[in-house]
Design goal:
- The protein is α+β, with helices and mostly antiparallel strands.
- It folds into three domains: 253 residues, Endonuclease/exonuclease/phosphatase (Deoxyribonuclease I, Chain A, 4-Layer Sandwich); 52 residues, no CATH class; 59 residues.
- The protein is built from nine helices and 16 strands.
- It has an eight-stranded mixed beta sheet with strand order 1-4-5-6-3-2-16-15. A six-stranded mixed beta sheet has the order 7-8-9-10-14-11. The protein has a two-stranded antiparallel sheet with strand order 12-13.
- Strand 2, helix 2 and strand 3 form a beta-alpha-beta unit.
- Helix 6 runs antiparallel to helix 7.
- The radius of gyration is 34 Å and the shape is flat.
- The N and C termini lie far apart (80 Å).
- The N terminus is likely disordered.
Length: 459
Protein backbone atom coordinates (compact mmCIF):
# COMPACT_ATOMS: atom_id res chain seq x y z
CA UNK A 1 0.00 0.00 0.00
CA UNK A 2 1.04 3.57 -0.57
CA UNK A 3 2.79 5.50 2.14
CA UNK A 4 0.75 8.23 3.82
CA UNK A 5 1.38 10.53 6.76
CA UNK A 6 -1.97 9.59 8.27
CA UNK A 7 -1.87 5.87 7.47
CA UNK A 8 -1.77 3.42 10.36
CA UNK A 9 -0.89 -0.26 10.42
CA UNK A 10 -2.50 -2.74 12.78
CA UNK A 11 0.12 -4.49 14.84
CA UNK A 12 -0.08 -8.25 14.57
CA UNK A 13 -0.96 -10.01 17.82
CA UNK A 14 1.70 -12.08 19.52
CA UNK A 15 -0.35 -15.26 19.40
CA UNK A 16 0.34 -17.67 16.56
CA UNK A 17 -2.67 -17.72 14.23
CA UNK A 18 -3.40 -20.60 11.90
CA UNK A 19 -6.77 -20.95 10.11
CA UNK A 20 -8.66 -24.11 10.94
CA UNK A 21 -7.86 -26.95 8.57
CA UNK A 22 -4.74 -25.36 7.06
CA UNK A 23 -2.59 -27.90 5.22
CA UNK A 24 1.06 -26.93 5.15
CA UNK A 25 2.44 -27.01 1.61
CA UNK A 26 5.91 -27.27 0.22
CA UNK A 27 6.60 -25.75 -3.17
CA UNK A 28 5.34 -28.19 -5.74
CA UNK A 29 4.78 -28.43 -9.46
CA UNK A 30 1.54 -27.11 -10.93
CA UNK A 31 0.84 -30.51 -12.41
CA UNK A 32 0.06 -31.68 -8.86
CA UNK A 33 -3.01 -29.81 -7.60
CA UNK A 34 -2.71 -30.53 -3.88
CA UNK A 35 0.17 -29.86 -1.46
CA UNK A 36 1.81 -32.45 0.72
CA UNK A 37 1.80 -32.71 4.49
CA UNK A 38 -1.85 -32.98 5.64
CA UNK A 39 -1.07 -32.94 9.34
CA UNK A 40 0.67 -29.59 9.39
CA UNK A 41 4.18 -31.03 8.97
CA UNK A 42 6.24 -31.00 5.81
CA UNK A 43 7.95 -34.42 5.41
CA UNK A 44 11.42 -34.46 3.94
CA UNK A 45 11.56 -35.20 0.23
CA UNK A 46 12.41 -38.83 -0.48
CA UNK A 47 11.39 -40.10 2.95
CA UNK A 48 8.83 -42.86 3.43
CA UNK A 49 6.39 -40.47 5.10
CA UNK A 50 6.73 -38.15 2.08
CA UNK A 51 5.77 -40.94 -0.30
CA UNK A 52 2.98 -42.19 1.95
CA UNK A 53 1.29 -38.78 2.17
CA UNK A 54 1.02 -38.25 -1.57
CA UNK A 55 -2.45 -39.21 -2.76
CA UNK A 56 -3.52 -40.76 0.57
CA UNK A 57 -6.09 -38.12 1.47
CA UNK A 58 -9.53 -38.62 -0.16
CA UNK A 59 -9.40 -34.99 -1.27
CA UNK A 60 -6.27 -35.80 -3.28
CA UNK A 61 -7.92 -38.44 -5.47
CA UNK A 62 -7.67 -37.44 -9.12
CA UNK A 63 -10.90 -36.31 -10.72
CA UNK A 64 -11.90 -35.02 -14.10
CA UNK A 65 -11.29 -31.30 -14.34
CA UNK A 66 -13.99 -28.87 -15.44
CA UNK A 67 -13.15 -25.98 -17.77
CA UNK A 68 -13.27 -22.76 -15.75
CA UNK A 69 -13.36 -20.48 -18.80
CA UNK A 70 -15.30 -21.26 -21.98
CA UNK A 71 -16.71 -19.34 -24.93
CA UNK A 72 -20.15 -19.47 -23.31
CA UNK A 73 -19.28 -18.34 -19.77
CA UNK A 74 -18.00 -15.18 -18.10
CA UNK A 75 -15.66 -15.42 -15.12
CA UNK A 76 -14.57 -12.84 -12.59
CA UNK A 77 -10.98 -12.57 -11.34
CA UNK A 78 -10.31 -9.96 -8.69
CA UNK A 79 -7.84 -8.58 -6.20
CA UNK A 80 -8.24 -6.86 -2.83
CA UNK A 81 -5.72 -5.63 -0.29
CA UNK A 82 -7.62 -6.30 2.95
CA UNK A 83 -4.84 -4.99 5.25
CA UNK A 84 -5.17 -8.01 7.54
CA UNK A 85 -7.08 -11.22 8.01
CA UNK A 86 -5.26 -11.99 11.26
CA UNK A 87 -8.21 -10.81 13.37
CA UNK A 88 -11.10 -12.81 14.67
CA UNK A 89 -14.01 -12.60 12.25
CA UNK A 90 -12.15 -10.82 9.43
CA UNK A 91 -12.12 -13.86 7.16
CA UNK A 92 -15.82 -14.50 7.71
CA UNK A 93 -16.67 -10.85 7.05
CA UNK A 94 -14.51 -10.92 3.91
CA UNK A 95 -16.39 -13.94 2.53
CA UNK A 96 -19.69 -12.29 3.42
CA UNK A 97 -18.73 -9.14 1.51
CA UNK A 98 -17.44 -11.08 -1.50
CA UNK A 99 -20.68 -13.08 -1.72
CA UNK A 100 -22.37 -9.91 -3.00
CA UNK A 101 -20.33 -10.00 -6.22
CA UNK A 102 -19.82 -12.40 -9.11
CA UNK A 103 -16.33 -13.88 -9.19
CA UNK A 104 -14.54 -17.21 -9.45
CA UNK A 105 -11.00 -16.38 -8.29
CA UNK A 106 -10.23 -13.66 -5.75
CA UNK A 107 -6.67 -12.59 -4.95
CA UNK A 108 -5.96 -11.23 -1.47
CA UNK A 109 -3.03 -9.09 -0.28
CA UNK A 110 -1.74 -8.63 3.28
CA UNK A 111 -3.35 -11.62 4.95
CA UNK A 112 -0.80 -11.40 7.82
CA UNK A 113 -1.10 -15.17 8.32
CA UNK A 114 1.82 -17.47 9.04
CA UNK A 115 2.58 -20.73 7.23
CA UNK A 116 1.52 -21.58 3.69
CA UNK A 117 -0.88 -24.11 2.21
CA UNK A 118 -4.60 -24.52 1.59
CA UNK A 119 -7.78 -24.92 3.62
CA UNK A 120 -11.54 -24.72 3.11
CA UNK A 121 -14.11 -22.40 4.68
CA UNK A 122 -17.85 -22.35 3.88
CA UNK A 123 -17.36 -24.09 0.54
CA UNK A 124 -14.47 -21.83 -0.55
CA UNK A 125 -10.93 -23.12 -1.01
CA UNK A 126 -8.19 -20.75 0.12
CA UNK A 127 -4.60 -21.05 -1.09
CA UNK A 128 -2.19 -18.93 0.92
CA UNK A 129 1.50 -18.04 0.89
CA UNK A 130 2.78 -16.40 4.06
CA UNK A 131 5.70 -15.58 6.28
CA UNK A 132 6.86 -18.44 8.49
CA UNK A 133 7.29 -16.61 11.79
CA UNK A 134 5.76 -13.11 11.66
CA UNK A 135 2.34 -11.73 10.83
CA UNK A 136 3.40 -9.56 7.90
CA UNK A 137 2.71 -9.52 4.17
CA UNK A 138 1.00 -12.68 2.94
CA UNK A 139 -1.04 -13.33 -0.22
CA UNK A 140 -3.89 -15.72 -0.95
CA UNK A 141 -6.24 -16.94 -3.66
CA UNK A 142 -9.86 -17.71 -2.80
CA UNK A 143 -11.60 -20.13 -5.16
CA UNK A 144 -15.31 -20.74 -5.50
CA UNK A 145 -16.66 -24.22 -6.27
CA UNK A 146 -16.31 -23.82 -10.05
CA UNK A 147 -12.67 -22.72 -9.78
CA UNK A 148 -11.93 -25.57 -7.37
CA UNK A 149 -13.06 -28.12 -9.96
CA UNK A 150 -10.79 -26.52 -12.58
CA UNK A 151 -7.70 -26.21 -10.33
CA UNK A 152 -4.68 -27.99 -11.82
CA UNK A 153 -2.18 -26.93 -9.18
CA UNK A 154 -0.61 -24.02 -7.30
CA UNK A 155 2.74 -22.75 -6.04
CA UNK A 156 3.45 -20.85 -2.83
CA UNK A 157 6.35 -18.76 -4.11
CA UNK A 158 6.95 -16.19 -1.37
CA UNK A 159 5.00 -14.09 1.17
CA UNK A 160 4.49 -11.64 -1.71
CA UNK A 161 3.55 -14.08 -4.47
CA UNK A 162 1.40 -17.14 -5.17
CA UNK A 163 0.34 -18.71 -8.48
CA UNK A 164 -2.33 -21.20 -9.52
CA UNK A 165 -3.19 -22.90 -12.79
CA UNK A 166 -6.71 -23.75 -14.00
CA UNK A 167 -8.24 -25.77 -16.83
CA UNK A 168 -10.01 -23.78 -19.58
CA UNK A 169 -11.64 -24.60 -22.88
CA UNK A 170 -8.64 -23.12 -24.70
CA UNK A 171 -5.97 -24.81 -22.56
CA UNK A 172 -4.97 -23.36 -19.20
CA UNK A 173 -5.22 -20.15 -17.18
CA UNK A 174 -2.41 -19.09 -14.85
CA UNK A 175 -3.22 -16.54 -12.13
CA UNK A 176 -0.41 -14.89 -10.15
CA UNK A 177 -1.42 -12.89 -7.07
CA UNK A 178 1.25 -10.45 -5.87
CA UNK A 179 1.87 -7.82 -3.20
CA UNK A 180 4.66 -5.43 -4.26
CA UNK A 181 6.92 -3.58 -1.79
CA UNK A 182 5.51 -0.21 -0.75
CA UNK A 183 7.12 3.20 -1.15
CA UNK A 184 8.90 2.91 2.21
CA UNK A 185 10.76 -0.25 1.19
CA UNK A 186 14.24 0.08 -0.34
CA UNK A 187 14.72 -0.12 -4.09
CA UNK A 188 16.64 -3.39 -3.94
CA UNK A 189 13.53 -5.10 -2.55
CA UNK A 190 11.53 -3.78 -5.49
CA UNK A 191 14.12 -5.11 -7.95
CA UNK A 192 14.11 -8.51 -6.23
CA UNK A 193 10.31 -8.59 -6.40
CA UNK A 194 10.24 -7.92 -10.15
CA UNK A 195 13.04 -10.43 -10.76
CA UNK A 196 11.02 -13.08 -8.96
CA UNK A 197 7.86 -12.17 -10.87
CA UNK A 198 9.81 -12.30 -14.13
CA UNK A 199 10.95 -15.82 -13.28
CA UNK A 200 7.37 -16.93 -12.58
CA UNK A 201 6.19 -15.52 -15.93
CA UNK A 202 9.11 -17.16 -17.78
CA UNK A 203 8.13 -20.53 -16.29
CA UNK A 204 4.51 -20.12 -17.38
CA UNK A 205 3.70 -21.96 -20.64
CA UNK A 206 3.47 -19.51 -23.54
CA UNK A 207 0.03 -20.75 -24.59
CA UNK A 208 -1.50 -20.07 -21.14
CA UNK A 209 -3.83 -17.15 -20.53
CA UNK A 210 -1.72 -15.27 -17.96
CA UNK A 211 -3.20 -12.92 -15.36
CA UNK A 212 -1.14 -11.03 -12.78
CA UNK A 213 -3.15 -9.22 -10.11
CA UNK A 214 -2.52 -7.49 -6.83
CA UNK A 215 -1.38 -4.37 -5.01
CA UNK A 216 1.55 -3.11 -7.12
CA UNK A 217 2.16 0.05 -5.05
CA UNK A 218 2.80 1.92 -8.29
CA UNK A 219 1.01 4.79 -10.04
CA UNK A 220 0.98 4.27 -13.81
CA UNK A 221 -0.83 7.54 -14.58
CA UNK A 222 -2.80 8.16 -17.74
CA UNK A 223 -0.27 8.83 -20.51
CA UNK A 224 -2.05 6.60 -23.02
CA UNK A 225 -0.22 8.08 -26.02
CA UNK A 226 3.14 6.80 -24.78
CA UNK A 227 1.96 3.53 -23.17
CA UNK A 228 -1.01 2.61 -25.38
CA UNK A 229 0.08 -1.04 -25.58
CA UNK A 230 -0.01 -1.36 -21.77
CA UNK A 231 -2.75 0.94 -20.46
CA UNK A 232 -6.07 2.21 -21.73
CA UNK A 233 -7.45 5.73 -21.81
CA UNK A 234 -8.90 5.54 -18.29
CA UNK A 235 -5.89 5.77 -16.01
CA UNK A 236 -5.80 7.93 -12.89
CA UNK A 237 -3.39 10.51 -11.50
CA UNK A 238 0.22 10.99 -12.46
CA UNK A 239 2.89 8.36 -12.99
CA UNK A 240 5.63 7.95 -10.36
CA UNK A 241 8.98 6.12 -10.56
CA UNK A 242 7.48 2.81 -9.39
CA UNK A 243 4.75 3.25 -11.99
CA UNK A 244 7.30 3.71 -14.75
CA UNK A 245 9.06 0.54 -13.61
CA UNK A 246 5.74 -1.35 -13.74
CA UNK A 247 4.93 -0.01 -17.22
CA UNK A 248 8.34 -1.06 -18.53
CA UNK A 249 7.85 -4.48 -16.96
CA UNK A 250 4.42 -4.88 -18.57
CA UNK A 251 5.87 -3.86 -21.94
CA UNK A 252 8.63 -6.46 -21.65
CA UNK A 253 6.23 -9.24 -20.55
CA UNK A 254 3.36 -8.32 -22.92
CA UNK A 255 0.84 -7.46 -20.18
CA UNK A 256 -2.11 -5.07 -20.40
CA UNK A 257 -3.51 -3.36 -17.29
CA UNK A 258 -7.19 -4.27 -17.60
CA UNK A 259 -8.67 -1.78 -15.12
CA UNK A 260 -7.42 1.16 -17.19
CA UNK A 261 -9.39 0.08 -20.28
CA UNK A 262 -12.91 0.97 -19.12
CA UNK A 263 -14.51 4.21 -17.89
CA UNK A 264 -15.62 4.51 -14.26
CA UNK A 265 -16.60 7.45 -12.11
CA UNK A 266 -14.32 6.30 -9.27
CA UNK A 267 -11.07 5.17 -10.84
CA UNK A 268 -8.94 5.12 -7.70
CA UNK A 269 -8.25 1.92 -5.75
CA UNK A 270 -6.58 3.39 -2.64
CA UNK A 271 -7.64 6.26 -0.36
CA UNK A 272 -5.74 7.77 2.55
CA UNK A 273 -7.40 7.59 5.99
CA UNK A 274 -8.24 11.31 5.86
CA UNK A 275 -9.84 10.91 2.42
CA UNK A 276 -7.68 13.64 0.84
CA UNK A 277 -5.31 11.47 -1.19
CA UNK A 278 -6.42 8.92 -3.75
CA UNK A 279 -4.33 6.73 -6.02
CA UNK A 280 -4.74 3.85 -8.42
CA UNK A 281 -2.25 1.19 -7.36
CA UNK A 282 -4.19 -2.11 -7.47
CA UNK A 283 -4.33 -3.77 -10.89
CA UNK A 284 -5.43 -6.80 -12.84
CA UNK A 285 -2.98 -7.36 -15.70
CA UNK A 286 -3.81 -9.70 -18.57
CA UNK A 287 -1.62 -11.12 -21.32
CA UNK A 288 -2.10 -8.77 -24.28
CA UNK A 289 -2.78 -11.70 -26.62
CA UNK A 290 -6.06 -12.18 -24.74
CA UNK A 291 -6.95 -8.49 -24.51
CA UNK A 292 -10.10 -8.95 -26.63
CA UNK A 293 -11.43 -11.43 -24.04
CA UNK A 294 -11.59 -8.72 -21.34
CA UNK A 295 -15.21 -7.59 -21.00
CA UNK A 296 -14.92 -5.25 -18.02
CA UNK A 297 -12.57 -4.32 -15.18
CA UNK A 298 -13.41 -1.90 -12.40
CA UNK A 299 -13.20 -1.19 -8.68
CA UNK A 300 -16.09 -1.65 -6.25
CA UNK A 301 -16.07 1.01 -3.52
CA UNK A 302 -19.18 -0.52 -1.93
CA UNK A 303 -17.20 -3.55 -0.70
CA UNK A 304 -16.04 -2.80 2.84
CA UNK A 305 -13.59 -4.49 5.20
CA UNK A 306 -12.20 -1.41 6.96
CA UNK A 307 -9.41 -1.37 4.36
CA UNK A 308 -8.08 1.69 2.56
CA UNK A 309 -8.04 -0.31 -0.71
CA UNK A 310 -10.91 -0.99 -3.08
CA UNK A 311 -12.00 -4.35 -4.43
CA UNK A 312 -11.10 -4.75 -8.14
CA UNK A 313 -12.73 -7.36 -10.40
CA UNK A 314 -11.97 -8.16 -14.03
CA UNK A 315 -14.57 -10.00 -16.13
CA UNK A 316 -13.29 -12.28 -18.89
CA UNK A 317 -15.17 -14.04 -21.67
CA UNK A 318 -13.19 -16.41 -23.87
CA UNK A 319 -13.12 -15.14 -27.43
CA UNK A 320 -11.65 -17.24 -30.20
CA UNK A 321 -10.29 -15.85 -33.43
CA UNK A 322 -12.69 -16.47 -36.28
CA UNK A 323 -11.34 -17.71 -39.56
CA UNK A 324 -11.96 -15.20 -42.36
CA UNK A 325 -14.41 -16.38 -44.95
CA UNK A 326 -12.71 -17.18 -48.24
CA UNK A 327 -14.48 -15.39 -51.05
CA UNK A 328 -14.96 -17.54 -54.13
CA UNK A 329 -12.70 -16.55 -57.02
CA UNK A 330 -14.70 -15.19 -59.95
CA UNK A 331 -13.51 -16.43 -63.32
CA UNK A 332 -14.25 -15.22 -66.82
CA UNK A 333 -16.27 -17.54 -69.04
CA UNK A 334 -13.46 -18.38 -71.46
CA UNK A 335 -15.52 -21.24 -72.93
CA UNK A 336 -17.31 -18.59 -75.06
CA UNK A 337 -14.10 -18.04 -77.02
CA UNK A 338 -14.85 -21.32 -78.83
CA UNK A 339 -17.66 -19.45 -80.64
CA UNK A 340 -16.21 -17.80 -83.75
CA UNK A 341 -18.27 -14.60 -83.54
CA UNK A 342 -17.34 -13.98 -79.89
CA UNK A 343 -13.67 -14.81 -80.56
CA UNK A 344 -13.55 -12.30 -83.41
CA UNK A 345 -15.24 -9.59 -81.32
CA UNK A 346 -12.90 -10.18 -78.37
CA UNK A 347 -9.82 -10.17 -80.64
CA UNK A 348 -10.79 -6.94 -82.38
CA UNK A 349 -11.83 -5.15 -79.17
CA UNK A 350 -8.74 -5.93 -77.13
CA UNK A 351 -6.51 -5.21 -80.12
CA UNK A 352 -8.11 -1.80 -80.57
CA UNK A 353 -7.66 -0.96 -76.91
CA UNK A 354 -4.02 -2.04 -76.80
CA UNK A 355 -3.01 -0.09 -79.92
CA UNK A 356 -3.13 3.35 -78.21
CA UNK A 357 -1.12 1.99 -75.28
CA UNK A 358 1.59 0.70 -77.60
CA UNK A 359 1.65 3.77 -79.86
CA UNK A 360 1.88 6.27 -77.00
CA UNK A 361 4.03 4.68 -74.32
CA UNK A 362 4.45 7.04 -71.36
CA UNK A 363 8.08 6.60 -70.32
CA UNK A 364 7.44 8.61 -67.13
CA UNK A 365 5.29 5.79 -65.74
CA UNK A 366 6.99 3.09 -63.69
CA UNK A 367 6.53 -0.63 -64.29
CA UNK A 368 3.72 -0.98 -61.71
CA UNK A 369 1.59 1.76 -63.29
CA UNK A 370 2.13 0.31 -66.78
CA UNK A 371 1.11 -3.15 -65.58
CA UNK A 372 -1.99 -1.70 -63.91
CA UNK A 373 -3.16 -0.22 -67.23
CA UNK A 374 -2.52 -3.52 -69.06
CA UNK A 375 -4.38 -5.50 -66.40
CA UNK A 376 -7.36 -3.12 -66.47
CA UNK A 377 -7.55 -3.45 -70.27
CA UNK A 378 -7.66 -7.24 -70.10
CA UNK A 379 -10.20 -7.34 -67.24
CA UNK A 380 -12.56 -4.75 -68.70
CA UNK A 381 -12.61 -6.40 -72.12
CA UNK A 382 -13.11 -9.91 -70.72
CA UNK A 383 -15.92 -8.82 -68.39
CA UNK A 384 -17.65 -6.87 -71.17
CA UNK A 385 -17.56 -9.59 -73.87
CA UNK A 386 -17.13 -12.92 -72.05
CA UNK A 387 -18.83 -12.20 -68.75
CA UNK A 388 -18.26 -14.14 -65.53
CA UNK A 389 -18.42 -17.89 -65.34
CA UNK A 390 -21.52 -18.98 -63.49
CA UNK A 391 -21.11 -21.48 -60.71
CA UNK A 392 -22.91 -24.65 -61.60
CA UNK A 393 -25.12 -25.76 -58.70
CA UNK A 394 -24.28 -29.19 -57.34
CA UNK A 395 -26.91 -31.75 -58.19
CA UNK A 396 -28.43 -33.32 -55.08
CA UNK A 397 -27.54 -36.99 -54.65
CA UNK A 398 -30.75 -37.83 -52.78
CA UNK A 399 -33.61 -38.76 -55.12
CA UNK A 400 -37.07 -37.26 -55.22
CA UNK A 401 -38.50 -40.73 -54.53
CA UNK A 402 -36.71 -40.87 -51.16
CA UNK A 403 -38.02 -37.42 -50.20
CA UNK A 404 -41.60 -38.48 -51.05
CA UNK A 405 -41.21 -41.63 -48.95
CA UNK A 406 -39.98 -39.51 -46.01
CA UNK A 407 -43.09 -37.31 -46.32
CA UNK A 408 -45.31 -40.40 -46.20
CA UNK A 409 -43.45 -41.73 -43.17
CA UNK A 410 -43.87 -38.38 -41.41
CA UNK A 411 -47.65 -38.60 -41.82
CA UNK A 412 -47.72 -42.16 -40.44
CA UNK A 413 -45.71 -41.19 -37.33
CA UNK A 414 -48.76 -39.80 -35.52
CA UNK A 415 -51.37 -41.94 -37.32
CA UNK A 416 -49.82 -45.23 -36.14
CA UNK A 417 -50.43 -44.24 -32.52
CA UNK A 418 -54.20 -44.31 -32.96
CA UNK A 419 -54.16 -47.08 -35.61
CA UNK A 420 -51.60 -49.82 -34.75
CA UNK A 421 -52.27 -51.53 -38.10
CA UNK A 422 -50.19 -48.77 -39.76
CA UNK A 423 -47.03 -49.67 -37.81
CA UNK A 424 -45.89 -52.37 -40.35
CA UNK A 425 -46.14 -49.80 -43.14
CA UNK A 426 -44.16 -47.30 -41.06
CA UNK A 427 -41.41 -49.86 -40.42
CA UNK A 428 -41.34 -50.81 -44.11
CA UNK A 429 -40.86 -47.16 -45.08
CA UNK A 430 -37.96 -46.89 -42.62
CA UNK A 431 -36.19 -49.79 -44.31
CA UNK A 432 -36.92 -48.53 -47.82
CA UNK A 433 -35.65 -45.01 -47.08
CA UNK A 434 -32.43 -46.40 -45.61
CA UNK A 435 -31.87 -48.77 -48.57
CA UNK A 436 -32.67 -46.25 -51.31
CA UNK A 437 -30.61 -43.52 -49.60
CA UNK A 438 -27.55 -45.76 -49.43
CA UNK A 439 -27.92 -46.93 -53.04
CA UNK A 440 -28.57 -43.39 -54.28
CA UNK A 441 -25.42 -41.99 -52.66
CA UNK A 442 -23.25 -44.79 -54.05
CA UNK A 443 -24.65 -44.22 -57.57
CA UNK A 444 -24.05 -40.47 -57.27
CA UNK A 445 -20.38 -41.01 -56.47
CA UNK A 446 -20.03 -43.46 -59.39
CA UNK A 447 -21.55 -40.95 -61.83
CA UNK A 448 -19.28 -38.22 -60.48
CA UNK A 449 -16.17 -40.33 -61.04
CA UNK A 450 -17.29 -41.17 -64.61
CA UNK A 451 -17.84 -37.47 -65.40
CA UNK A 452 -14.40 -36.53 -64.09
CA UNK A 453 -12.75 -39.31 -66.12
CA UNK A 454 -14.61 -38.28 -69.29
CA UNK A 455 -13.64 -34.63 -68.81
CA UNK A 456 -9.99 -35.64 -68.34
CA UNK A 457 -10.02 -37.72 -71.55
CA UNK A 458 -11.68 -34.91 -73.48
CA UNK A 459 -9.01 -32.45 -72.36
Amino acid sequence: MMKSQNSTRVRAPDKTFKPTGLHTAAHHDTASPNPIGRDGEVPKAGSASYRDKIGRDPADKPEEKVALLTAKTNIGIGTWNVRTLNKDGNLEILLHQLAKYDWEIMGICETHWIQSGDFSVDGYKILCSSEDNEHRKGVALILNKIAQKALLGYKTISPRMISARFQTQAGALTVVQVYAPNMADPEDQVDSFYDQLQKVIDETPNQDLLIVSGDMNAKVGRDWDQWKHVIGQHGYGDMNSRGEKLLNFCTATNLTIANTLFPQSRQWTWESPDGRTRNKIDYVMVNSNWKTSIKNARSFPSADLASDHQLVICNIHLKFKTKPKIKPVKRYDTSKLKIDSIWTKYHDTIGGRFRPLLDHIDTSLDANETWTKIKETFNNTAEEILGMKKERPQEPWISQEVLELSDERSKLKKAKISDPSLRPRYNFLNREIHRKTKNGKEQWFKDLCINVENAHQAA
